[in-house]
């Protein structure tokens, strides 16, 4: 049996930019991506602590060390600059393997720094 489990989590990062005229996605500082075990084009959920919005999109690599978290495309209507969000990815795995799996959970500091 395969189940879906939490793989990665960026807990309480701030949205630093919003780009409505982009085709869609979330741009994340490459340092944060590495720390959270996220890769470019990976599907993620973005959860807004400000308004309860939950949306799915994919990751684009942002400038390393910038602290950038940018909502792109239509999602920029639902999550704004300054909002606090949680970014989550999941993985499918065998039920028994999932019992032993430990997700990567990152708690960035001020300015989305590690």
Instruction: Give the termini separation.
Output: 36 Å
How many structural domains in the coordinates?
1
Shape: globular
H-E order? EEEHEEEEHE
**Rg calculated over all Cα atoms:** 14 Å
**CATH fold node name:** Barwin-like endoglucanases
Low-confidence stretches: none
Assigned CATH class: Mainly Beta
Number of strands: 8
Classify the beta-strand content into a percent band: over 45%
- The main sheet orders its strands as 2-6-3-5-4-7-1-8
Give the averaged pLDDT, no decimals: 97
Total of helices: 2
Q: Helical percent range?
A: 10-25%
Largest sheet: 8 strands, mixed
Explain what you see.
By secondary structure, this protein is mainly beta. It has a single domain (2-112), classed as Barwin-like endoglucanases. The protein is 11% helix and 47% strand. It has an 8-stranded mixed sheet. It starts with a strand and ends in an 8-residue tail after the last strand.
Q: Helices and strands in order, then pairings?
A:
Elements: E1 2-14, E2 17-19, E3 25-29, H1 30-36, E4 43-48, E5 54-62, E6 69-72, E7 84-94, H2 95-100, E8 104-106
Parallel strand pairs: 1-8, 2-6, 3-5
Antiparallel strand pairs: 1-7, 3-6, 4-5, 4-7
């Amino acid at each position: 049996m395969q189940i879906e489990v939490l793989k990665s989590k960026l807990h309480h990062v701030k949205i630093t930019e919003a780009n409505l005229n982009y085709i869609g996605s979330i741009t994340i500082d490459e340092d944060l991506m590495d720390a959270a075990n996220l890769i470019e084009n990976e599907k993620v959920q973005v959860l807004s602590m400000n308004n309860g919005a939950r949306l799915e999109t994919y990751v684009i690599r942002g400038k390393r060390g910038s602290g950038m978290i940018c909502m792109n495309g239509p999602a920029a209507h639902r999550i704004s600059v300054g909002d606090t969000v949680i970014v989550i990815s999941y993985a499918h795995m065998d039920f028994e393997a999932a019992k032993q799996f430990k997700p990567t959970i990152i708690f960035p500091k001020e300015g989305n720094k590690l």
